[in-house]
Structure formats: structure tokens, C-alpha cells
Write a structure and sequence with these properties.
Elements (H helix, E strand, L loop, with lengths): L2 E3 L13 E4 L5 E3 H4 L4 E6 L5 H17 L4 E7 L11 H11 L5 E3 L4 H5 L4 E2 L1 E6 L4 E3 L17 H11 L12 E4 L4
Parallel strand pairs: 4-5, 5-6
Antiparallel strand pairs: 1-10, 2-3, 2-6, 4-8, 7-10, 8-9
Length: about 180
């Protein structure tokens, strides 16, 4: 596991489209199907990463709070599950059912979607406005495994609150930190 920061990308880019398999329903979902009417959070995650494990409950709380407000949540696992079997689709399905995910848990078998989003780590968060223009590329909050700060989702929650209120989101953003994506 290499500690990796979100790759800096200038804000304003359009969210790349995709069609990916949901590990639970085994149906394909596109960005157009999953996007929210007001905003969309795209999260690259996986099962085995301790950084992701540390924040799952905060992510789920955010999703449950904001999906009813028109915010779509897209969660994608792009890791090489042959090298990391804990990230295989059957394990993704088990985790999603155990934690009652309110969103599909998508499998990026080719890793092309992660590359299109310039994802580097897990967790890797981006927020897009209603027109799928990137307005945030940063951390969930300051919580990290072992630092004593409980996950709250405060940074991402602030971004969503500002966006929903029609206010500007600060352009200075603290990158997420996590395990590197496991490339093939």
C-alpha cells in the first residue's frame, strides 16, 4: 500500500461517461442513469483499503442525507481484484449488502473509467454540479486511520451544502489521501 494523494486536476472538467456493472444487481449503469439532478459525487473506493474502511460509515451517512436532496452517488472499484481478491465483485456485493449501500457499487474491470477520471487513490472523491462540471476534487474530511479524528464527512458535506444553496464552492481544496489504486 502506497499512501497516495488525489491527483490535482484543474476544476471545471466534464465528468466522463461510462457504463459499468453493479456488483450487487449485476446490471449495467451509466453516469446518465446515476447522476443527481443537483449534483453527483463520484468516489473511487474498494473493500480492502484501510482508508476506505475507515470512512465507509461517514460516506453512507452522507449518501443517505443527500440522495433525497438530488445528489447522486457513484461508487466505483477499479482495483485489480486478481491481485487483491478482497476487491473482487463477489466481495463487493457482500460488503454492499452488509452495509446496505444506498447506491450501486460498480466494477471497473478495464480500469478505463479510473483513468478517465484521473483517479489515483482510494478513497478519491470528485463532486460535479448539475451540468456534470467538476467543482470539487478533495478529501471527505481530516480523518485518517490512526490519527484519532472520527470520520464526519465535514469537507464533502460543506461542498454539497454550498452547492445546494447556490453558493460558490472554494477552489482551494485539500486532496484526499489513501491507498494507491491497484493497477494491472
Amino acid at each position: 500500500m502506497a499512501r497516495t494523494l488525489t491527483t490535482p486536476v484543474p476544476l471545471g472538467y466534464q465528468a466522463p461517461d461510462f457504463s459499468l456493472l453493479d456488483a450487487v444487481s449485476e446490471k449495467h449503469f451509466s453516469l446518465a442513469k446515476l447522476k443527481g439532478s443537483k449534483a453527483t459525487v463520484v468516489l473511487f473506493a474498494c473493500n480492502h483499503c484501510p482508508y476506505v474502511q475507515h470512512v465507509w460509515d461517514a460516506v453512507l451517512s452522507l449518501a443517505r442525507d443527500y440522495i433525497p436532496k438530488g445528489v447522486g452517488f457513484v461508487v466505483i472499484n477499479s482495483n485489480d481484484f486478481e491481485a487483491y481478491p478482497a476487491d473482487a465483485p463477489d466481495k463487493m456485493k457482500a460488503l454492499a449488502l452488509e452495509k446496505n449501500f444506498p447506491f450501486p457499487y460498480l466494477v471497473d474491470l478495464t480500469q478505463e473509467v479510473a483513468k478517465a477520471y484521473v483517479a489515483a487513490c482510494t478513497p478519491d472523491f470528485s463532486v460535479f454540479d448539475a451540468k456534470l462540471c467538476c467543482i470539487y476534487r478533495g478529501q471527505l474530511d481530516d480523518a485518517r486511520p490512526g490519527n484519532g479524528i472520527p470520520p464526519s464527512g465535514k469537507d464533502l458535506r460543506q461542498v454539497l451544502e454550498l452547492l445546494l444553496a447556490g453558493q460558490a464552492v472554494p477552489t482551494e481544496q485539500k486532496p484526499s489521501l489513501g491507498c494507491n489504486i491497484k493497477w494491472r
